[in-house]
Amino acid sequence: MVFRSPLELYPSHFFLPNFPADRPLLLQANGAPPPARPSPEDLSMFQLPTLNFSPEQVASVCETLEETGDIERLGRFLWSLPVAPGACEAINKHESILRARAVVAFHTGNFRDLYHILENHKFTKDSHGKLQAMWLEAHYQEAEKLRGRPLGPVDKYRVRKKFPLPRTIWDGEQKTHCFKERTRSLLREWYLQDPYPNPSKKRELAQATGLTPTQVGNWFKNRRQRDRAAAAKNRLVPLSLYPSLSLSLSQSRFNALECIEHLFMLYRSVCLFVLL
């Protein structure tokens, strides 16, 4: 189904009368009295029809255009939107419509409107990921424009510290290495039980954590590599890190040398005795 803007469906020239714009001036030039002001009843004959879109219908159109990525048509639709009388308040509170306005503001570079929408409306968790990405990317672009160069990882970290996510698009849970702490804790528990989960277990864990099976598999792979590296490092620890152990081994070597030297002297004595 193709959605079209209401103004595309009902062009204004279908409803407005085709009167010459200079007709009153011509009448006055001929000596005729100026025309009387038309009555409200006469004007009502030429008014545009009111399209009574409900908030749900508007939200459905916004969601479809947002999913297809047609930001230009989405912006035109929001700008030219006629709504039913009394529906403005509901429109201004509907999450899908607010998210659509935020998307249009982001893609048009109107970051001030984007920040205003995100900071002043509470969004559900389903919208957090996309809105968080727009919040951060908008601040990154502003910082790049101000500094005149691309941002590095450290620069982006400083931007995130300076402009933290508003609580309207964030549940408040801290993230570590891109995964939430609750997710990491669950992954660690499963890893202790089985470091090599099969595909079915990966899917089960992905469903429990909200990750994809690929992300789960990569986490387990990286964790196994870190554990192997740590084990190899422990096997190659130099004795200088353990002075007491190094001293005891040196003392043992010294005692062994003393014993060998003593046995050698005893052997020489026996040999001399035999020769005599």
UniProtKB/TrEMBL annotation:
Coiled coil: none
Subcellular localization: Nucleus
DNA-binding region: 172-231
Alphabetical keyword list: Developmental protein, DNA-binding, Homeobox, Nucleus
Pfam families: Homeodomain (PF00046), SIX1_SD (PF16878)
UniProt GO molecular function: DNA-binding transcription factor activity, RNA polymerase II-specific; RNA polymerase II cis-regulatory region sequence-specific DNA binding
All residue ranges annotated as the Homeobox domain in the record: 170-230
Predominant localisation class: nucleus
PROSITE patterns hit by this protein: HOMEOBOX_2 (PS50071)
GO cellular component: nucleus; transcription regulator complex
GO terms under biological process: brain development; eye development
Origin: domain of life: Eukaryota
Family under the similarity heading: Belongs to the SIX/Sine oculis homeobox family.
Protein name as catalogued: Homeobox domain-containing protein
